Amino acid sequence: MDVFIAIVQILDSTIRLSVPLLLACLAGLFSERSGIFDIGLEGKMLVGAFAGAAAASVFHSAFIGLGMAILISVAFAMVHGFASITHRGNQIVSGVAINFIAAGSTIILGQAWFQQGGRTPALQPGERFDAIVWPGAEAVRDVPIIGPIYAELISGHSLLVYLAFLMVPFTWWVLFRTRFGLRLRAVGENPAAVDTAGISVAWLRYRALICTGILTGVAGAYLSMVQNGGFVKDMTAGKGYIALAALIFAKWKPVNAMFACLLFGFLDAAAIRLQGSPLPIIGKVPVQFMQALPYILTVILLAGFIGKAIPPRAGGVPYVKER
Amino acid sequence: MAQAAIELIGINKSFGAVRANRDINLEIARGTIHGIVGENGAGKSTLMSILYGFYQADSGEIHVGGKPASIKTPNDAIALGIGMVHQHFMLVDNFSVLENIILGAESDALLKSSIAKARSELDRLEREYGLEVDPDAIIEELPVGLQQRVEILKALYRGAEILILDEPTGVLTPAEADHLFRILKQLKEQGKTVVLITHKLREIMAITDNVSVMRQGTMVATRETSKTTVGELAELMVGRRVLLRVEKGEAEAGAVKLAVKNLTVKDSRGVTMVDDISFDLRAGEIVGIAGVAGNGQSELLEAISGIRHAVSGSVMLDGKPIDLTGAADPGELRDRGLAHVPEDRHHVGLVLAFEENENSILGYHDDPRYLKGPFLNVDAIMADAKDKIEKYDIRPGNPRLKTANFSGGNQQKIVLAREMEQDPGVLIVGQPTRGVDVGAIEFIHKRLIAMRDQGKAVLVVSVELDEIRSLSDRILVMFAGRIVGERGPEATEGELGLLMAGVERQEAAL
Q1: Which of A12, A231, A242, B336 has CB 3.0 to 4.6 Å from A224, enough for a Cys bridge?
Q2: What residue ranges are annotated as transmembrane (chain A) (predicted)?
Q3: What angle is formed at CA A222 by the lines to CA A218 and CA A228, rounded to 5 degrees?
Q4: How far is B293 from chain A (nearest CA, A)?
């Protein structure tokens, strides 16, 4: 039974750890499906995390915090759009620039406003998104098997966790069942086809980036307002890049993206759980190795274990009307 | 003349310093097929793009159905019943036919109703015009002819009354082209107006009612097709008399330069594309290889020029074998006097992002003529490029211009100039005049014959039967990877056509 409890706990933290990856991955999916590479997911998450924690702390409201996170993140997405859609700049350069601006500006503004070494003040209850306990969760906790699964895995997460997982079917529905989704996928494959059909390529791509901005904003808010009780500098710690890897791994498909992010989340959870405890046969594994495992796995998977991942064909190429 | 479907009055359009359209007037009668011919860069596509709202004219008026129209975006054009089939299809390759049809013409924010509507509408169009296509097929899995049909359906689905087709047969096989023409005639019978842009005069003569000729951005003439001739149109297009069939004397075939023996080549999927082919190419003759595209000609060319692996057989150049592993050193073959003008100049023959002068020596850049110590001799290269530009009439005559900015015909001339001016003993040419203008075709043919007369061995592969017949001293016909017949230059088109279709299948008497 101890093993069972341990597994449930690992799965529980898998869910918690995969949420920011999942949100960022879906954010990247909107942008890349429209033909805009977005290496700036990391930066947008970071500014979202900062804006969310700062606003929640100042206005004493988690929802104002979430709103600010989304607003600022979308604003950064629009900067990316302005550079890479309107001015047809290099999308990678623009994304990297956004990451640098995010890393620097959050620390400077954090220090200037709160004088806590770049942190935001610790969030009080009501300023964070608290866990939602589902009806009957406590009552069934002692029921074998089902009890812990219901109480630990399904119940007891914050609003944003449920939101993140609901975004998976929603994103699928938007992409494959709506006019906007059809056009979005088309513009990432052949923008000229969209242009000659009388649809504005630029406006369509801006709208895709707005979706990206909203989702990275939520991802950032989750980091600073759910997982942590405030903003800490560089708290995204490469999650934006892992999300990009998951996106390729998932071949730009929403449901696959969820499984890819859960896998990365699981590796993360297992690494934390197994720190310091000896494994059968292998013996004690260095902490550093466990922490590096998700990244090693990424390299191996991307190096060819996933088959051919064909990116959207117009990805990374600014659209210019041909003569 | 019946009522005008479209009237263009005084259209002007410039791109920077280039005046693509000057003061164009054009009237297209309702319910007719109207051809627009002109050389590459004459401004045909620009004019049609203005009509479709893809570009804005700098000045001028457009009347559609007798009323002045303002066409600022493709949406305006579609609303006025103008549809366009672009030269490079505007399809999303990994979408289904249905998804491509409804893109931009969805009836609702959700797709369900649009798809249902499109399905029934496609069914109707299919019955009315004989335009069959599987609505759930994925575009990239369809042959080119069907992809084009999807483009036509796309326009009809949007209620097009006027259909513009830009160089529609460039990518089609002869059979597909014939089918397209039947469809266009049917559209005309249903009262639609068709505008056909092309530089192939035979097509104009075959199906249009009226034809307008453009030259260097101006509209030089409009004729009733039945009252004009190919010769007159060619002359109007080029601005001078053009020889449609180049005069040439008897071939004086000499020693065997290239001997192909039992050559077999498979493609990447393992399908046999060249099946046990043998032939000789002698000095002082042009051998033409005819055949419908996809019957192994491309693979044969690539194997001979050392860039594709051959499974078995041998190729001897001047009595010495060529490396057939697919890893032959192209430089070595060049040194041995084998020059190759590839079929696909964009991917194999040129680096489009390079300047013209760089492409004009590409592959020969190690030649001491172009070097100054370890460095390129820029002055010599420029002088050489200018010389070739003059000799081959490459336009615009600016060796510093990026190669991508030259028209297709001029790009072809750059490749030909580079390979021919090296004075090779054997010249292998794939599709010498694909996408090339009438005037330039005459020039290229003359050069090829001049090379032959200097005693060079020339192998020409072309899907244009006219070209094969007018150039070749001997014609080999390929079908399904085999040479199914050899004929002299006097062979009739019908005879060759039957061979190409595999009807009169017989072993090559070689």
Answers
A1: A231
A2: 6-29, 41-59, 92-114, 159-176, 206-225, 288-306
A3: 155
A4: 27
CA distance A22 to A240: 10
In whole angstroms, what is the distance from residue B312 CA to residue A117 CA?
74
Decide: B88 and B167 in contact? Cβ < 8 Å: no
**Which of A176, A179, A323 is closest, CB to CB, to B106?**
A179
Total domains in the fold of chain A? 1
- Subunit contact B95:A321, Cβ cutoff 8 A: no
Would strands B375-376 and B426-430 be described as parallel, antiparallel, or unpaired? unpaired
Within a domain: residue A214? Answer: yes
Q: Is residue A19 part of a domain?
A: yes
Does a structural domain hold residue A30? Answer: yes
For residues A199-223, average pLDDT: 97
Tokens of B267: 């493609």
Whole-complex ipTM: 0.88
Instruction: Answer yes or no: is pLDDT of B307 > 60.
Output: yes
Mean pLDDT calculated for residue range A147-158: 85
Distance between CA A13 and CA B409 in Å, rounded? 64
Query: What is the distance between the alpha carbons of residues B35 and B132, in angstroms, rounded to a whole number?
Result: 26
Q: What's the gap in Å between the CA of A73 and the closest CA on chain B? A: 27
Task: Determine contact, residues B251/B284, Cβ cutoff 8 Å.
Answer: yes
Query: Using CA atoms, how far apart are residues A249 and A241, in angstroms rounded to an integer?
Result: 12
Q: How confident is the model at residue B2 (pLDDT cuts 50, 70, 90)?
A: low
pLDDT in tens, A68-89: 999 999 999 999 999 999 999 9
Give the per-residue pLDDT at A55.
96
What is the C-alpha to C-alpha distance for residues B196 and B211, in angstroms, rounded to an integer? 9
Tell me the chain B residues in contact with residue A173 when contact means C-beta distances shorter than 8 Å.
none
Give the gap in angstroms from C-alpha A180 to the nearest C-alpha of chain B: 7
> Residue A120 is part of which domain span?
2-128+135-243
Query: Which residues of chain B have a CB within 8 Å of the CB of A201?
Result: none
Q: Which residues of A touch B109 (CB under 8 A)?
A: 178-180
Asked if the Cβ–Cβ distance from A323 to B15 is below 8 Å, we say yes
Cis bond before residue B396 (omega within 30° of 0): yes
Which residue matches tokens 């589902």? A134
Residue A301 within a domain: no
Q: How many CB atoms lie within 10 A of CB B448?
A: 25
> Is residue B246 predicted with pLDDT exceeding 80?
no
pLDDT band at residue B325 under the 50/70/90 scheme: confident
- B16-46 per-position pLDDT tens digit: 777 889 999 999 999 999 999 987 778 888 8
User: Distance between CA B79 and CA B57 in Å, rounded?
Assistant: 19
Classify each residue of A258-273 as buried b or exposed e, where b means 16 or more C-beta atoms within 10 Å of its C-beta.
bbbbbbbbbbbbbbeb
Q: Is the pLDDT of residue A2 over 90?
A: no
Distance CA B201, CA B207 (A): 10
Residue A306 has pLDDT above 70, yes or no: no
User: What's the CA dihedral at A3, A8, A14, A17 to 10 degrees?
Assistant: -110
Give strand pairing partners of B185. Answer: none
Q: Is the pLDDT at A322 greater than 80, yes or no?
A: no
Q: What is the dihedral of CA B341, B345, B349, B352, to 10 degrees?
A: 150
- Confidence (pTM): 0.79
Retrieve residue A295's tokens.
């990244």
Beta strands in chain A (DSSP E): 131-132, 157-158
Distance CA B327, CA B339 (A): 17
> Each residue of A276-303: pLDDT tens digit?
677 777 777 777 787 787 778 777 877 7
**B92:A185 CB<8 A:** yes
- Per residue in B158-186, pLDDT (tens digit) is 999 999 999 898 777 777 888 899 999 99
